[in-house]
Amino acid sequence: MLVLRAYALASFAALSASRAPIEALASTQVDDELRAHFECAARCASMPESDRAILENTWRSVGCEEGGPGAHPICGSSMEQLCVGACGGGQQDMTTWLPGAFGSRSPGIAEKQIGGFAADYEAHHACSARCAQEGVSVDAAGPDAAERALETLNRCGVVQLVGAYELTELDRFQRAFDALKSKATAYKKLLDTKQLHDGRSQVYLPFTTPFTSRKALGVGDLVHGVLAKYFRTSGMGFGIDHASVLVSASHSGNQSLHPDVPYFKGLTVSVHTALRDVTTEMGPTYFCPCTGEALIREDWPSSAAIKMSILKRQDCLASSLAPKLTRRGTITVYDGAMFHKGLENGSEQDRPVLKLEVGADDFPDRRNYIQLASASAKKQTLKFRAALGPPLMGDMAPSSTEL
Ligand SMILES: O=C(O)CCC(=O)C(=O)O
After folding, report:
1. Strand, helix or coil for residue 118
2. What are the residue ranges spanned by the domains of the chain?
3. Is the link from the previous residue into 48 a cis peptide, with omega within 30 of 0?
4. Residue 285 CB less than 6 A away from ligand 1
5. Rg of the chain's alpha carbons, rounded to an integer?
6. Is a pLDDT exceeding 70 seen at residue 240?
7. Which one of 66, 116, 218, 226 is separated from 122 by 20 to 30 angstroms, measured CA to CA?
């Protein structure tokens, strides 16, 4: 079986197909820690059924079968991810727990596999260096904007569509949001100060006009076409997960580096519209381009090893990207599996962003991001999901998504 068993997803081959040519790269050493992480992942990727059964028992014992991904932190994980988390954590004696993959009679890993990882690691450096140096902006009004945006999103994991949200439309959104803010009771019911960290808060949008159209949420035809193609690569439709306005308050701190979903690439995508110009001082979002776990079995051990080392070091392993100026109306689209963080907002101004998250097929329900939200926020979000669900975020006609 080629694909890691998680959510019975289709092949992600095209998502990870765009690799920079290895020969053009500067040499990048695989250190002992990375090598150990790769060894964990490579062993986990080829574990026998007997080990898988042990992991599945653990997974069931915490209520994942009945409760879905929200029931326990391990419930959204594939067995390979559980295995690699335990192995990388170093607290479990893997040789006795999963003897098939780690015991004295296990096949182990070959030098050839380490060589393959070294090449993948170099490719990761080259990929992120290109994204950081060339940037990830695409002029929404420029020629071939949709193709360029999709190519950048696939290659870097993030793209910024400059001018994608028409400014007079954004004024209308802002007026409606200000009106919501003035209704103190309703606003408070939709406010979430718990789920986001380090001085960020969000207000879930109510399912009322003008917020009910996908365009008002940042998904005009250009973004819609890009998202449709991005999810279609893996054979999936997409729909809304939740919509809110996120505020990084003036003087809020540096976030820790995180992915929004601790799973694979291609399951959730964030669509952030800048509601005002974002300067370096206001702490833009900082990305580790080309990160996130690949779903196809051949690519997964390398991407998982890189992810584990990023988590441990709390920094990108290769080049990072933090746009110096993001103009109001720019829409930043990024895969939720990619590592990122909001930087410290050292300015005197809040940094508000219209934050839409979309997910593959039934993934938003399975992920259950809103489980900690207020009753009002849940109710409104479920209305959005019913109206703007898969296969094409409320649209039924595939022709409307052609690029
Ligand atoms: O503040 C940002 O730019 C990113 C926010 C974010 O990623 C989060 O709160 O999860």
Report:
1. helix
2. 13-119, 136-284+322-401
3. no
4. yes
5. 21
6. yes
7. 226
